[in-house]
Amino acid sequence: MSIINNQYCSDPGAVIFGKNENSTVSVSTLIGSSVGLLISIIAFIMLIMTAVLFKEWRESRKNQLLIQFMIARIFYITVRYIIDFRNHFYAHEARCVLYLDFICLVYTEYALICWMFIFSMKLNDSLVKVFNTSESPLWKVSLGTWLIPAFVTALLWISFTMQTDRELLFFLLYLLLLKWPVLCANAIFLITALNAVIRSNISKSENNVKIVLVMLILIFGFSLQQTLIDIYKIVHLLIIDYYVTFYLNIINIIMIYHCAFSILFWLFGNAKTRKLWRREKPKLPTSSELNFRMSIQ
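That's the G-protein coupled receptors family 2 profile 2 domain-containing protein sequence above. Prediction below.
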C-alpha cells in the first residue's frame, strides 16, 4: 500500500471534504470548515492585537508560550484546510505536490503537538510546583520546539522515499514512537495539573481558577481528538469506508471551532485581560485576599 498515493499524504491530519463533490455532506463540511477557519483566524488576530497593545500581557512567559502554541495551531488547521480543499477539487496531483503536502502537514502537526506539550508543562509547573525552578531561556525553548518537528519530518520523508513499500509501517512507527508518547506525556501533565487545582480548594473569588480549569480541559480534549483522528486514519488507510470519512469530517470540524474557542476563552475568559481591553486599572488585593493567597502557597 502506498500512503503517498493513497490517503495519508493528502490527509495526515484529517479528511475535511469527501470525494463526492455533489453530496450534501461534502458541501456542508466545506461551509462548516470555512466558517470555522475564518473565526479561528479572527480570534488569532485578536490574540496578536492583545500582545501588541498590552506590554503587561505579552511579558508573561505563559502568554509568550501561548502565542507560539496558537501560531502552530493556526498553521496546522490552515495548511490542512488548503490542501484538503485543493484535493477536493483536484483529486489527481503530481507526486511532487503530494510529497510537499506530506511535508507541510506532518511538520505543522508535530510542531503543534510539541507546543501543546510545552504549554501544558508550563501550566503544570505553575500549578503543581511549590518552589520556583530555573527556566530555560525562551529563545532556546522556541528554537528547539520549532526545529525538532523539522527533523522528525525530514526523517520520516527520507524513510518514505527510500522504502516506498513500507510507508504504512513508517507511519505507524511515527504514531507509536513519536506522536502518541508526546500526547500521553501531555495528558499526564494535564491530569496532574487538574488534580492540583481541584485538591487545592481554591476560593471561587480567584479569577484564574475557572479559566485554568477550562483551558486544561480544552487541551486535554484536543489530545483526545488527535488520538481519535489517528485511529480513524489508520482504519481509513486499511479499509476505505464512507462512514470512517464521515466521522473524520465531524472530528475535524470540531477541532477547527475548538481552536477558535480556545483562543477567545483564554483572552476574554480571563478577567485581567478583559480589564486591559476596557482600559481599567487593576484593583489592589485586599488584606484578606493576600492572607488567603499566602495560606495556599
